[in-house]
Specification:
Layout: H1 5-18, H2 26-38, E1 42-47, H3 54-62, E2 67-74, H4 78-85, E3 93-98, H5 103-107, E4 112-115, H6 131-148, E5 153-156, H7 161-175, E6 183-185, H8 188-202, E7 213-215, E8 222-224, H9 237-248, H10 250-258, H11 266-284, E9 289-296, E10 304-312, E11 315-319, H12 327-352
Parallel strand pairs: 1-2, 1-4, 2-3, 4-5, 5-6
Antiparallel strand pairs: 7-8, 9-10, 10-11
Helix pairs in contact: 1-2, 3-11, 6-7, 7-12, 8-9
Length: 353
């Protein structure tokens, strides 16, 4: 039986859906054309896409209208996650990549790379206890970014963020591709938690609340600036103490509740998508896109620090100053800087050793 060329094209398209994990092929090139024609947008890779964060993050990015192509890379299970998500009737074309030999294909041509690869905490561990395993994972993945998509924006989620961002920066420096504007440590979950907990205390809808959270992403380095909450609000000393502790220990609260089954994944995926969407809106040229992130910074004497940043076509185009702090926050800032300095140095030393 003969098929018309139209029918042949349909069969090829069908095959593309049945083999979403295939790498380079004419079938996928056709899928690319479809993506360009049907759904203009950005190309996004998720590294660690089959994990607890990776899977819901991949689903939410598949639903994001700014995404035309979504690459899902992991060392396990990415074909299954890809096949599953590829059935969603949203615009983005999904492709899976499995294991180190496919890392370069996963990264080539990407505009944004989101990295939640690595091990999570168990009860009793600090984020720094993850350093020995995650530092090497982040190093390898960032070497791939430097080689295959040196102009991509990188959103780094893997813990300890206070050290993995300096590791990534050193990898990019070594490769000669470092642009501080394009490397962002994701601290959005701290802001998401702060908005939620502050809204509870104030009796407001969390969507109406905005709390800047500065410093870093671990314990006392997480510094919520309650004096700068929007809408303007005041807190008693007890409320300030309760809120600061709860925000700083939000991650531990989830680790303990999960009792050995990992750390925050669903709220983190939500936060990661909130941040990635802001990066994509910045890349598109939207004005006034501002989020907190852990970036190269001159706001303090430390080389990296989380503050509000303005996201634009080239990444973090403006890093905002801290603004006025009250006495409680000034004390918190000193504690945060002390711990951060060690974590940053540890990351730098890991690559320079
Ligand atoms: N920045 C933040 O606010 C947060 C960061 N995290 C961190 O995110 C990381 C991931 O957490 P989960 O998704 O819960 O862990 P998970 O263990 O569920 O998933 C991690 C995934 O990374 C993959 N992976 C491991 N080595 C890899 C490599 N070399 N290349 C590619 N993929 C690799 C694993 O196969 C797994 O699928 C952890 O380090 C965790 O501490 C978690 C919550 C919040
Ligand atoms: O606490 C952890 O290990 C995971 C994390 O970074 C968070 O939930 O903020």
């Amino acid at each position: 039986m003969e098929f018309s060329s139209d029918a042949n094209q349909r069969i090829a398209r069908l095959a593309a859906h049945l083999q979403p994990q295939m790498e380079e092929s004419s079938i996928l090139r056709r899928a690319d054309c479809r993506a360009k024609g049907g759904s203009p947008g950005f190309k996004v890779a998720i590294l660690g896409a089959a994990g607890g964060i990776g899977q819901p993050l991949a689903m939410l990015m598949k639903m994001n209208p700014l995404v035309s192509v979504l690459h899902l890379y992991d060392v396990v299970n990415s074909p299954g996650v890809t096949a599953d998500l590829s059935h969603m009737d949203t615009g983005a074309v999904v492709r899976g990549f499995l294991g180190q030999p496919q890392l370069e294909s996963a990264l080539t041509g990407m505009d944004l790379v989101i990295i939640p690869a690595g091990v999570p905490r168990k009860p009793g561990m600090t984020r720094d206890d993850l350093f020995n395993i995650n530092a090497g994972i982040v190093k390898t993945l960032c070497e791939g970014v430097a080689k295959c998509c040196p102009n991509a924006i990188v959103n780094l989620i893997s813990n300890p963020v206070n050290s993995t961002v300096p590791i990534a920066a050193e990898v990019f420096k070594k490769a000669g591709t470092y642009d501080p504007k394009r490397l962002l440590g994701v601290t959005t979950l701290d802001v998401v938690r702060a908005n939620t907990f502050v809204a509870e205390v104030l009796g407001l809808d969390p969507r109406e609340v905005n709390v800047p959270v500065v410093g870093g992403h671990s314990g006392v380095t997480i510094l919520p600036l309650l004096s700068q909450v929007k809408p303007p609000s005041s807190f008693t000393p007890d409320e300030t103490e309760y809120l600061t502790n709860r925000i700083q220990n939000g991650g531990t609260e989830v680790v303990e509740a999960k009792a050995g089954a990992g750390s925050a994944t669903l709220s983190m995926a939500y936060a990661a998508v909130k941040f990635a969407d802001a990066c994509l809106r910045g890349l598109r040229g939207d004005a006034g896109v501002v989020e907190c992130a852990f970036v190269a910074s001159e706001v303090t004497e430390l080389p990296f620090f989380a503050t509000k940043v303005r996201l634009g076509r080239t990444g973090a185009e403006e890093v905002y100053q801290l603004g006025p702090l009250n006495e409680y926050e000034r004390v918190g800032l000193e504690k945060a800087k002390e711990e951060l300095a060690g974590s940053i140095q540890k990351g730098i030393a890991f690559i320079k050793k």
